[in-house]
Amino acid sequence: MNDTRTTIRLPEDLHVRVRRLAERDRRSVHAELLVLIERGLALEESIPAGLASLEATNEIYRRATEGVPGTETTRARRIAAPQDHDEGEDHDGR
Asked: What pLDDT, in 10s, does the model give residues 39-86?
């Protein structure tokens, strides 16, 4: 198999996330990127052509990233979480 050399630029926060995964899985950053790309491609290729609508793609993404810090589902859950306060108190504690 011939390998093709490709250079990519990653935002620092994304590089840190990949590096942490690589360390956790005892892989190089290069090997971790290959695993992540393979998984992403497998997910994309598993979506039937008729279901490749925006809604279906968003639902798959939501399920895949549920609970991952920095993703929309985590932020939405935090915003929607009920506030801790006693009944009868105003939101400012009165």
From this structure: 888 887 877 666 666 677 777 777 787 777 666 655 455 555 555 545
Least Cα distance to 78 among 86, 63, 68 occurs for: 68
Retrieve residue 43's tokens. 């997910």
38 to 42, 63, 77, 91: CA distances (angstroms): 6, 18, 29, 48
Q: How far apart are CA 31 and CA 37, in angstroms?
A: 10
CA dihedral 26, 33, 48, 54 (to 10 degrees): 120
Name the pTM for this structure.
0.52
